[in-house]
């Protein structure tokens, strides 16, 4: 219990969003956190110090730079604030249960992961179709579970319920806090099941090798440590169009894009904003996204 109490921010995603809606706009109007808390005392059940920690840990939209006095203070050497991951989300979704499910009901698998740029900046969500080596990537402002939920909501709407269920029957991911709200991913707003999610064992990235390996293509274009803050989704779609148009020997020298079109139809690519790149025009170097 003592260890768990120090894991991270003891606040749910919904509570954090509600706090952000109150605090961040007022901070950006030049108000101090002390003024905000005292003026809206009935809306807070956490201390001023905790709010400062959330801002410093980039859990809120507002940043330290929005508070001039904080900017003048010498930063302390502290660990970044993170969300506590509710271990209950893994109940019935462990890797052992994934293996048992696959033995009983074999199905196609989509491996899910995140690619970090600058710490605290924009981040990518990656979805890897193990049946054809096709990978999707989506830019997110923050590495939160709500940002992942929003992307799945968009995919569900754009693809339609029938195609979404066909394309995303099962998700396999790690234990990151951004994936800690499985119910919001597994079910739509009407309570209809649209997918299943399972988690790898802790510190066992080898259990989802396809997405980990395919990240090498992204790192050819976006080097490790490079900020994604200047990128938009159109940039990511361009990058993924080049990556998915690149033929693979294990696919019989077919590209992942060709294989996905064969399995699910080429109209899916248009809905996802991807286009096939001619073979001799494929570019897998940083120059692709230079503006």
Keywords:
291 residues, Nucleotidyltransferase, domain 5, 2 domains, five-stranded mixed beta sheet, 13 helices
Question: What do these coordinates show?
Answer:
With 291 residues, the protein is α/β, with parallel strands linked by helices. It folds into two domains: 11-71; 92-289, Ribonuclease H-like superfamily/Ribonuclease H (Nucleotidyltransferase, domain 5), CATH 3.30.420.10. It contains 13 helices and five strands. The protein has helices spanning 2-5, 13-27, 33-39, 48-56, 68-71, 95-104, 145-159, 161-167, 182-186, 209-221, 233-245, 256-264, 267-272, and strands at residues 110-116, 123-129, 134-140, 170-173, 196-199. It has a five-stranded mixed beta sheet, sandwiched between helices. Helix 7 (145-159) packs across helix 8. The longest helix is centred in the N-terminal third of the chain and has 15 residues, at 13-27. The chain is globular.
Secondary structure topology:
Layout: H1 2-5, H2 13-27, H3 33-39, H4 48-56, H5 68-71, H6 95-104, E1 110-116, E2 123-129, E3 134-140, H7 145-159, H8 161-167, E4 170-173, H9 182-186, E5 196-199, H10 209-221, H11 233-245, H12 256-264, H13 267-272
Parallel strand pairs: 1-4, 4-5
Antiparallel strand pairs: 1-2, 2-3
Helix pairs in contact: 7-8
